[in-house]
Amino acid sequence: MMVSDVAVRGYLKNLVGDDGLEMIERASINELTDEKIAEETGSNLNTVRRTLYILYENRLANYRRERDKDSGWLTYLWKVDLSDISRNMDEEAQKLIRKLDTRLDFEGQSVCYTCENGCGRFLFETASDYDFVCPVCHAGLDYQDSSVLVDAVRRKLEELRRAFE
Known about the structure:
The chain contains six helices and five strands, in the order αααββαββαβα. It has two domains: 6-80, Arc Repressor Mutant, subunit A, CATH 1.10.10.10; 87-163, no CATH class. α1 crosses α3 (45-57). The radius of gyration is 24 Å and the shape is elongated. The protein is 55% helix and 15% strand.
């Protein structure tokens, strides 16, 4: 199952890592045990199991159990199913939009100060409690103009919203 779309590859790589993505690309479209998938793809069994569980949690893989009549053991037959991946990616994008909205509100309403030495960033109230001196290194705290950050977040939000119109 070759994953060629750049966005889908990026999403899967973020979800399961390079090894997991490689396993997905080499996996058969048939139902197989985790051991057979490892054998077929040349992947480490732990990588296969980790990848399958993550995909299952994200509704991108499913399994079927079979009981061996003689031994009573259960066998799990796995199948990677990426048919819901567009919905998952849309949900992730919507989460990102909500987070960026929250960040934009915070940055637009907050006055912040930063340590000259890069120790941290402080809200005005906290900076004034410390007399505008860094509580970590005792250097001065300087006003931070967040307009560049606000503009960048606003542009990214507009770009994402246009993509979902």
